[in-house]
Write the structure tokens for this entry.
Amino acid sequence: MADSLRELFHEELKDIYDAEQRITKALPKMAKVADSEELVSAFEEHLSETEEHIRRLEEVFDSIEESPAKKTCKAMVGLLEEGQELMDEDTDSPALKDAALIAAAQKVEHYEIATYGCLRTWAELLGEDEAVRLLQITLDEEGATDKKLTEIAQSLNVEAIEQSDEEEEPAVVTQGRRAGNGGRSSQKRTR
Ligand code: FE
Ligand code: FE
């Protein structure tokens, strides 16, 4: 256990520096498996943001006069393993797969949000203003990604049910469809 907040800050920085690098390896696979165009581009966009998060973390290390270092983030190893299992599962419904992929991705985002939130708060307590500024930018981007994933999930759920259970009764599903669902789901409907 670290014996000062400064040390704890440094340790947690190494954890998220490791986690972010693991995420850059997972996101291209998730984009490849995703079906919805919106989800594919969300994953692709977040990959470039994640690369930026790594670069920004290097600036944070620099601002506290430490060199960038990693410490295996066991939580991220587990979250990404779970995500990989989902990607490997067979399903007839690409939308259902997307719903599962979004869940895996949001668990990752929530881990990042928790970590960056703590780091930002600790940087404030430590008077590390430059670190506060940098960490807040990344925290905001993780939050925006999480929100975007929720929106995509909301547009997918109906479709997931439709493709798996409702193939014979498309009219019923159409009535229950949300407004503003985008063109993609209509194109993908069977019939
Ligand atoms: Fe990130
Ligand atoms: Fe992220």
Observations:
- Confidence is low (pLDDT under 50) at residues 169-191.
- The chain is about 80% helix and 0% strand.
- The radius of gyration is 19 Å.
- The chain has one domain: 5-167.
